[in-house]
Amino acid sequence: MLFHLRRRFHLLGAGTRTQQAWTSSSCLFMDPPSCRSPGLVLQSQSTDVYQNLALEDWIDGHVDLQRRSILLLWRNRPAVVIGRHQNPWAECDLPAMRRRNVALARRRSGGGTVYHDLGNLNLTFFTSKKAYDRRRNLQVISEALRRVRPELDVQATDRFDLLLNGRYKISGTASRLSRKSSYHHCTLLHSADRSALSSLLRPSCPGIHSNATPSVPSPVANLTEHAPSLKWEELLEAVVQQYNSEFGLISPSRLVHPADESLFPGVGKMEAELRSWEWTFGKTPKFRVETQLELRDGQAAAGCSAELLMDVKHGLVESCRLDVPADWLPVRLSRSTGEVLLGERFCPHRAAAALAALLRSESGQLQGRLRNLCEALLAVMG
Amino acid sequence: MKMAMRAALRCLSGNFPPRLSRLSPPALVPATRLLYGNRSGCWRTFSTTSVHCKGKEKQSKTSSSTREQGWTQLSMRTDNHEALGDVVYCGLPEVGQRLEQMDEFGALESVKAASELYSPLTGEVTAINTELAENPGLVNKSCYADGWLIKMTIEKPEELEKLMDQPAYDKFIKSLEE
Q: What's the complex ipTM?
């Protein structure tokens, strides 16, 4: 398998040795000598965030970027995308996302949390490490906008954000450095749902202490709020034209589907990993939850609270201490509640399943109080 | 930026083939200086694809065949700080975790660039620098001293033979820049 992939890796960049019939993947990435072009613009036909992230991974791992560069343009149905080392419970409102069917994805690059929808354009600039230049990539965008809408003032900051009119963030950047290649990707707010953005990008869980990379919130704006006539297609065309102009390329633009295994063999497996709980939640850096749970007796407030101290590692409960007033709930029950959760996913569904047996073992007022304690605990988990 | 690119290129080594069967390619962390102690106690310098090792060979007193056991301390190399920038997050393995050569043992994130850390050797993690959790910037400020990453045993000393010593590494880096 390794040898096979290494051979394909070599041939994707070779450009000339085509003695055998190759799959369409190699045809896509190998131009015939007569129209050799070191650039390629790909537009994803998918709006699935996991498929698109998998495509990025695939290109990063399989294409020889020493001699060519690629610009990938993509957009997603509503999704929240967190950075490689971020904590989803701290960054976004998971229950609200579930209610609104908004996906959560963890990308492989660093940086902060962003909201994607069909009004947000994602651009990924794939290059060799030698050619890695985020500022130049952002210039592609700012120059493209200057050409189509010169009245817009778009500038890159030293954090590689793009600001509109000196105030509003319209683009955020993140990157990944691999062995020989790099990619720099960024968002571009054309016409995204800003109210969804602000309502979903808030913590699910109170009292999180962690060294996960935090997001830096900024006021944002859509391009269409300041240039209402700017159509999506016009923006795309301007960016592609400017990309070719900036890098001196003649890049054909091709539509591709990221789930096409004939073009991207193995991409399905990459997509599966990105969808998995182990990747999305399990890669969260270790964190501690320290918070108070307001206790209830039935519908009424009980007038007392419990202290929760929980350590979560790899998304699993590593330790759980509940200090509940002993006159409200026997210590044996609060202790058992903590113990039952050990090793479980920090997830309200899994925790509820784990606690079900404990709840069934009690009755009457104690069961009611225990249920209320469990509900308060589950609410913390997002 | 070109300086940064040159520094980034120093990450490369021809010794390890890309692990394309992995879901993500072996991302290079800036290489660090490998110091490996030989029997006479002198330090020798090696370079690897990803991290530098400062280590010691030890004679095992309990074994009748005097099998040597070494340990190594991995750090980041100063000339790669430019490429990565200020480290804002450092993820490290567990003590006791066994690593095969080229296994991912952690990850670094600098200002918006993420990359994985790959083990140059096979062995067991014996210590991790817990200071880096609170203060990841130590990797930039004091990479060989307070900013060390992990310590691990050397299970297969023959793997060291395949690493480049300092003169070979310098020659290799120079060839990349040409």
A: 0.73
